[in-house]
Design goal:
single chain; alpha/beta; Aminopeptidase; about 35% helix; about 400 residues; elongated
């Protein structure tokens, strides 16, 4: 089985090499939903993906939760919905989209342990089209876990690019547009959270650029997936002075509306905030992130003594942002300041907050968020709040140093 797994995860290079001589490819491979689909029997599940042309690929499984992962270079998923593949009881939470520049990913959470049995891409010599058939076979939890794991020799190592030297007299603000790529976040009426928050981040960056001594870094500048851990690492590597994660979620439970600012806490201030934190972390996990063999980052950060200084600075940042938004007439939640264990806020030495500018599940908030004029006003409020925090933080820290 290990030999089979190695062949499935690495054999795409041989396929691509043979095709490259015979065919000059242009553009991205497109999905033929009519010829694609899911099929399930008592012991097996088969996923068929029809493409306009062959592409390099790899297939593997990950455990906890049990997931099937398919990586491609590169597929155009435009217009493809989860329902286009049909349904199979063994598969749920099917996701697909961009994952790295030049690479796409499909992830299916498995309802039971179905181990990878075979994966093969074939090319039609007459049409040039390709068909990838992935077959899973019912297994045991133990056998599934033993076979699962990320491929060796990862195609996309993630070294952080060296950051330019940061001037001591300048403030670096890291803006983190939530979601991206394979993880669209919330969606409504053709609008997605990932696109709206990237646009909002650019608008905020433009406003912050009007402040003389402030630099801005975005954790993503296009529709790419960035793991929660990498977002925090980018802020650390760049020497960020503050970190703001931007979201506009949707909550089917309850009637959440209005802007909220969240900080890190071991225990959530309320059930809705706990649900938000769980949804954000789960979205990252279901996008194919492998957590096996990693250090317990959460425990290490929570024990870091740096939080003794960072916590009051973070609280002041949250309240300054709320004040800035309120000054621009932002509709605030009845409890605009909340806290929970958001993984993206776990940089112990960087004041970090998560801003839900509103909820796409709220009619009022949705109308506001898709309005460029409204977002511009909110960007101005955020700019004013950040500026107020910078002034107050420097004054307080100056007293502490003395």
């Amino acid at each position: 089985m290990s030999r089979l797994f190695a062949a499935i995860t690495l054999g795409f290079a041989l396929l691509w090499g043979g095709i490259a001589v015979a065919q000059s490819l242009s553009g991205l491979a497109r999905v033929d939903t009519e010829a694609s689909g899911l099929r399930q029997s008592r012991q097996t599940v088969t996923l068929t993906l029809a493409l306009s042309q062959p592409v390099p690929y790899r297939v593997y499984t990950l455990d906890t939760p049990q997931r099937l992962v398919l990586d491609f270079r590169e597929v155009d998923w435009s217009g493809v919905t989860e329902k286009a593949f049909g349904e199979a009881a063994a598969m749920r939470e099917l996701r697909f989209g961009g994952f790295r520049p030049g690479w796409s990913r499909m992830v299916a959470e498995l309802a039971a342990p179905y181990a990878l049995d075979s994966a093969q891409m074939t090319r039609n010599a007459d049409t040039g089209q390709a068909e990838l058939v992935v077959r899973l076979k019912k297994s045991t939890p133990e056998a599934f876990a033993a076979q699962s794991g990320p491929p060796k020799g990862d195609l996309w190592p993630e070294p952080l690019a060296p950051a330019p030297p940061k001037a001591n007299d300048r403030v670096l603000v890291v803006l983190d547009p939530g979601h991206g790529g394979i993880d669209p976040g919330a969606s409504r009426d053709g609008q997605t959270e990932k696109d709206l928050m990237l646009t909002f981040a650019r608008e905020i960056a433009e406003e912050l650029g009007r402040l003389g001594a402030v630099d801005v870094l975005l954790t993503r500048t296009d529709d790419s997936f960035v793991s929660l851990e990498r977002r925090v690492a980018m802020a650390h590597q760049a020497g960020a002075d503050l970190f703001i994660s931007l979201h506009a979620d949707a909550l089917a439970e309850g009637r959440a509306h209005g802007a909220t600012v969240h900080t890190l806490a071991d225990d959530a201030t309320d059930e809705a905030t706990a649900l938000l934190a769980e949804r954000h972390d789960r979205a990252d996990l279901l996008s194919g992130t492998d957590l096996s063999g990693q250090d317990d980052i959460v425990a290490d950060v929570l024990l870091d003594l740096a939080r003794q200084e960072t916590e009051p600075r973070t609280e002041r940042l949250a309240r300054a942002i709320i004040g800035g938004l309120e000054s621009k007439g932002a509709p605030l939640n009845r409890r605009p300041y909340r806290a929970a264990a958001f993984s993206v806020l776990k940089a112990a030495d960087i004041p970090s907050v998560l801003l839900e500018i509103g909820f796409l599940s709220s009619d009022r908030d949705f109308t506001n968020i898709i309005n460029a004029t409204w977002r511009r006003s909110m960007a101005e409020g955020l700019r004013d709040g950040i500026q107020a925090w910078i002034i107050a933080d420097e004054a307080v820290r100056g007293v502490v140093r003395q």
